[in-house]
Each structure stands twice: as C-alpha cells, then as structure tokens.
Design a protein that fits this description.
21 strands, 15-stranded antiparallel β-sheet, alpha+beta, two-stranded antiparallel sheet, 480 residues
C-alpha cells in the first residue's frame, strides 16, 4: 500500500471559505426578510416531522447518552515518540483520544455566540460593528478551553448541517479534500443579515511534550446591510503534556481582523502562557482606522470575557499601574517533576477573573458550561446538541451527514469496541474508493463547494456552490 492509499485520522484546527451571496437557493436575489418556516426555507422536513418543541421553541438535549471514556489505560507516547517535529495529519491515533464529534461539527461551534454577529449588523457605526466582530472572533475559540479530545477526521465527502431558528442561522460544511485535509463551511443568517464562510486546513506538529495546531485559511464574515466584509485567521492552539501529566490548552499568536470597506483593522494578541502562567488565556489588542490611529482598546481572556475602553483612559490606567506594586505571580504546580527527572509543562494557575478597568464596556462573556461538562468531554451546552439525532431527521438529512456516521455514534453511546470497529471499516472503505478512482482515472468531485478565489482577499478558497437546502441528495456519495 502506498502513501496515497492510506487513510489517517488526526486533525484539529480551524479557518475559512467563501460565498456567492445567495439566500434563496432558487433565486439568489430574493429580497425582504427570509421566511424561517422549518418546512420551507430551511428545508428540514414537513411540519409533522418537526422535533419536540416547548412554547414554540425546539428543545435540545442537555446531556450525552454515555459519560466520557477514561483514557488512563492508553499511552500516546508509543505513537508519538518517533514524530517529534513532524506534521501529524498522517498519524493514526487510538479512538480513546477522540471526542464523539467530527471536525466538521467542531467548526460549527463558531456559531455558539452568533448573537454577536446579529448585534454587529444592528450597529450604525463602523467602530461598534468592529467591536462586535472582534468579540465574535474571540468567542469562536472559547469552546476549546479544556477540550483535550481530538475530533474525528472527516471522511472525504462528509457533510454537516445545522439549522437553529432560535439563533437565526443555518450552516453547511463539507470535507472537500483528504490530502491535505480541508473542511469548507458556509453559514447565513435567516434574516439576511450575514454570510459567514471559510475553508480550514490546520497544520499539526508534535514538539515532544505538546501538540501545536497552526491555523491555515481565511475566515470571512459579510454584514450584508452594511456591504462590509471582514476577514481574519485564528490563533495557534497548543495542547501541553500529551505524553504525561495533566493536559492543558493555550492559544497564542496575533489575529488581524480587516474591514475591507473602511480599512479599519482590529489587532488582537493572544498571549502565550509566559513565566508562571501570568499571561495565560489573556487577549489584548486595539481597533485602528486606515491611518493606524487607535480608536478603541480591547482586553480580556478568551476563556472568560472581553472588554473594551477608550485609548486615552486605557493608557492613563496603565501608567498608574506601572507606578504601583507588581502583580503577584502564580506558583508552579508541585507535581511538575516526574519521577525520572523529566520536567513537564506545569499547568499554570490562571487568575480567576479579568481585572476590569473603570469605564470599560463589556463586549462578550462566555456561556456557563453544564454542571456535568467534565463527564461529557468538557462540551458546552451548544456542543452537546450538535450530534443529536432527533426523530425523523434521517429522512431529511443528507446521507453524508456526520450524525449518521456509525463510529462517532458508537463512541457517543459508550460502545468503544463498536466505535473502533466501525472506524476501521470506514477507513478501509475510503481506501478502497480511492483505489477504484485511481483505476478508473477519475477525480473526486465535491458536492456543495468548489475551488475559487476569495472575492475580498484574492487568495485561494473553497466557495459554496449553493443548492444544499433544496435537499436533492441523489448525487451524494456512499461513504458510510
């Protein structure tokens, strides 16, 4: 078997795609407020097939069917010890290190705080809109906090859709490439207020004690009412102590959000942990105009909240702070030494709250996680609902939807043996399909996205072709 025939399951990361600006699949230029009747514009079946509702609002589950499987009996070192400094997309990992979600579903977690996009669309001033967009960009990575499980690598042609009338959006994604792994997504507001799209191809590397996920691709948000497009990339995510010790996550790097109409830019610095964890989870930055004049200062933590304040007030406060006593430093964990003397990446003691500067404006605060989150892979309430397969959904979902994938379903139900067997079967099925295409000299054809250029950056991107919500799934591949 050659390298091109092999199927590997290892991905984590995020980032970008493009759009055609359409809302009605039949008429891209339809005007007015979008109808949000689930049996029509959203295409999720007839009225009689709708999921349970309470006071007119669809109910979603609040817990997984089975608790998280323990990973204590598995050693990742036997797999990673020969991979230091290498790219990890071709390293097979035991299913025990997964979480019961596909990476396509992990991408969908961007939408948990979608209210920030709706809020941005309602703001009359460009500065206020950028504040909301910046908060949304930070909120999009908040669900990664303490999420040390790896999502399943999507199969080629796999899809995931999500329609949330209560949150005002619908979402579709597709795995458009396997080598390299690329996931394309497209979302639109049900009231025609935004488009959100991207194509994500993360680069993973193992550095001895940590795994680093470097984001690739560009995320695009379009606020249609204001004829504005914003683009950015995500920070780098790093998981520490993958061999031994307590796993912990940090995000670091600079995120630049550009308003292509006004030239305004938001520069956000996701701080690396630093000595004794002083900077852990911190985000600091500013919004500037096209002449680089600072208009607004932003600070907070990506795990907790984001605040903003006028630049003059911020600088005045910082000057007073520098003249005062230095901040106390968290002490390293007592268990940071192994028995054989190898030093671990000690888990930093993060400050519990962000110190709020007087006169600051709250831009975003993270949602409280469910009380049983630790037994559910540290999922948020939004995440818990992503793989829910409600009654009647099989009749309306595409046959390639993640919810129908048997290995993920087996793991979610706590049947690890079944999950492992199904994972192996699906991998072999994908290898066989690839060999058959090679024999026939046929190229893989994506179903809902096509290659093109991002209209705002000019960079290569995967663009939504349209038509998914018309629900003609006759040409969908048989991947499960």
């Amino acid at each position: 078997m050659n390298g091109e025939e092999e199927f590997f399951d290892a991905v984590t990361g995020f980032d970008s795609e493009n759009s055609s600006g359409e809302f009605s699949e039949a008429d891209p230029r339809v005007a007015g407020v979008m109808c949000v009747d689930t049996g029509r514009s959203n295409g999720i079946g007839k009225v009689g097939e709708r999921p349970p509702r309470e006071n007119g609002i669809q109910k979603h589950r609040t817990a997984l069917p089975a608790p998280m499987f323990t990973r204590s009996d598995f050693s990742v070192w036997s797999i990673l010890k020969k991979c230091i400094g290498l790219e990890l997309s071709k390293i097979t990992m035991p299913i025990a290190f997964n979480e019961p979600l596909s990476f396509l579903q992990r991408i969908t977690e961007y939408m948990e705080h979608v209210y920030l996009i709706h809020r941005a669309s309602c703001q009359p001033q460009a500065l206020e809109r950028m504040q909301c967009v910046a908060a949304f960009a930070v909120s999009a990575v908040a669900s990664q906090w303490e999420r040390t499980g790896k999502p399943f690598n999507p199969l080629l042609g796999e899809t995931y859709e999500l329609i949330r009338e209560d949150l005002g959006f619908r979402f579709i994604s597709e795995q458009v490439s396997h080598h390299p792994p690329i996931s394309a997504f497209y979302s639109e507001g049900l009231n025609q207020d935004f488009l959100f799209h991207g194509s994500i191809y993360p680069k993973l590397k193992f550095w001895g004690k940590s795994v680093e996920a470097e984001p690739r691709g560009t995320i695009t948000l379009e606020l249609l009412k204001h004829n504005e497009a914003y683009t950015w990339t995500n920070p780098t995510c790093c998981v520490h102590n993958v061999i031994i010790g307590k796993l912990w996550i940090e995000q670091y790097g600079t995120v630049e959000i550009l308003n292509h109409r006004t030239g305004d830019k938001c520069v956000l610095h996701f701080k690396p942990c630093g000595l004794f964890g002083k900077e852990l989870h911190k985000v600091e930055g500013h919004i500037q105009d096209k002449n680089k004049k600072k208009l607004f200062m932003i600070y907070g933590k990506w795990t907790e909240c984001l605040w903003g304040i006028d630049p003059a007030a911020y600088e005045s406060y910082k000057k007073r702070e520098r003249r005062g006593d230095p901040l106390s430093k968290a002490q390293p964990d007592d268990s940071s030494q192994k028995a054989d003397g190898d030093v671990l990446d000690a888990v930093p003691e993060a400050q519990e709250t962000v110190h709020v500067i007087p006169g600051s404006k709250l831009l975003w605060r993270v949602n409280t996680r469910p009380p049983n989150s630790a037994q559910m892979y540290n999922f948020t309430s939004f995440t818990v609902s992503l793989n829910e397969l409600q009654s009647g959904m099989e009749k309306t979902l595409a046959p390639t939807d993640c919810r129908l994938r048997p290995d993920i379903r087996g793991m979610e139900n706590g049947d690890m043996d079944l999950a492992s067997q199904e994972k192996e079967r699906l991998e072999e099925k994908q290898r066989e399909a690839r060999r058959e295409r090679a024999t026939q000299e046929a190229e893989w054809q994506t179903r809902w996205f096509h290659q093109g250029s991002n209209p705002h950056t000019g960079t290569p991107d995967w663009l939504y072709t349209g038509g998914y919500f018309e629900r003609n799934f006759s040409r969908c591949p048989d991947i499960y």
